[in-house]
Design a protein that fits this description.
This protein is α/β, with parallel strands linked by helices. It has helices at about 10-25, 40-50, 70-75; strands at about 1-10, 30-35, 60-65. The protein has three helices and three strands, in the order βαβαβα.
């Protein structure tokens, strides 16, 4: 099984396009993991997950309590 990990921040329109693209693939042994990096549009994400949850065999959704992008940038600059 392949894990498709998708970080997202306030981009439900692009996320929808991406999920549609994944559904069009012939390879089907995968799981989709969506990581919401503390976006401000919870309703849109909830609607999106509800729409796609029945279309994928395995779809996980997680929302970070804090936006972790700044932490990652700061730590990557120290390497």
């Amino acid at each position: 099984m392949v894990s498709i990990v998708i970080p997202s921040y306030n981009r439900t329109n692009l996320l929808s396009r991406l999920l549609d693209s994944i559904l069009c693939q012939t390879f089907t042994d995968y799981e989709v993991i969506i990581i919401n990096d503390s976006s401000s549009n919870d309703r849109e994400y909830n609607d999106l997950i509800e729409k796609y949850s029945n279309l994928f065999k395995v779809l996980h959704y997680h929302k970070n309590d804090l936006n972790l992008r700044s932490f990652l940038k700061r730590n990557l600059n120290k390497v």
